[in-house]
Amino acid sequence: MTEVLRLEHVSKSFGNKEVLKDINFHVNSGEIIGYIGSNGAGKSTTIKIILGLIDDYEGDVYVFGDKVKGKTEYKRKIGYVPEVSDMYDNLTAKEYIDFIGMLYGINSNAAVAKAAEMMGVFGIQGAMEGRIHTFSKGMRQKLSIVAGMLHNPDILFLDEPLGGIDANSVLVFKEIIQKLKNKGKTIFYSSHILEVVEKLSDRILLINDGTIIIDGSVEEVMKKQSDTSLESIFNDVTGFHDHEMLADKFVDAFMN
Ligand SMILES: Nc1ncnc2c1ncn2[C@@H]1O[C@H](COP(=O)(O)OP(=O)(O)OP(=O)(O)O)[C@@H](O)[C@H]1O
């Protein structure tokens, strides 16, 4: 097993708001990491720092042992499927894939042929000539997945990747993740759908208010917390027990 990613004492503030507070973890090849936390906990900020989209942070990020601050070459080893993709809506899928291929130095015909095969797996091969602004939410997300994986990255960051994707393609996607793991790829999976995270992940990283409060295998974490599901662990460690009261409050307001 090779160490592919390490964060050492990473902290980040926006103005006087401390969003990440001394984050430390490392990840090995072939691991599927479920990165979870409440809204605003700091998940996307962590991922953006690793991707080099935010570079004014404290501490260090290492990818394959090299410090990445200020560097770009390492980005070829990383794939990113964002939660909301900034696609160029007026392009066709083919033009978009061509553009992504160009960014990674993949020849146009090879990029389009590879994408067509991957899109076919998700049942959207017919969309290649369509303009992205005409796509459904799920079609956009499938194209985003294909685009993020086109360059055969070693580490894949998936931020809520299943949004809008139909149940059959979700099944295929979960299999793909397992098979990529078996090929030694590392998957960093961030999602609020905890049933999926629980099933997919080898290891859970739970960030709360900018601090990693859980780091361990799903079994270890459940044993330690004496809980039976990731959802109840999440509720417990984030100190949330008010769902019934809050639902009553909402319904009361609704009925008034
Ligand atoms: N560019 C920015 N400027 C100011 N504050 C920011 C910026 N980006 C993020 N934040 C703040 O940092 C905190 C963490 O945000 P982040 O997007 O990392 O959370 P998250 O865990 O990904 O949340 P979610 O689950 O809702 O996607 C939030 O309070 C957010 O308002």
UniProtKB/TrEMBL annotation:
Residues 5-234 form the ABC transporter domain. Keywords: ATP-binding, Nucleotide-binding. PROSITE patterns: ABC_TRANSPORTER_1 (PS00211), ABC_TRANSPORTER_2 (PS50893). InterPro entries: AAA+_ATPase, ABC_transporter-like_ATP-bd, ABC_transporter-like_CS, P-loop_NTPase. It comes from the Bacteria. One of its GO terms (molecular function) is ATP binding. Transmembrane segments: none annotated. This is ABC-2 type transport system ATP-binding protein. It comes from Sedimentibacter saalensis.
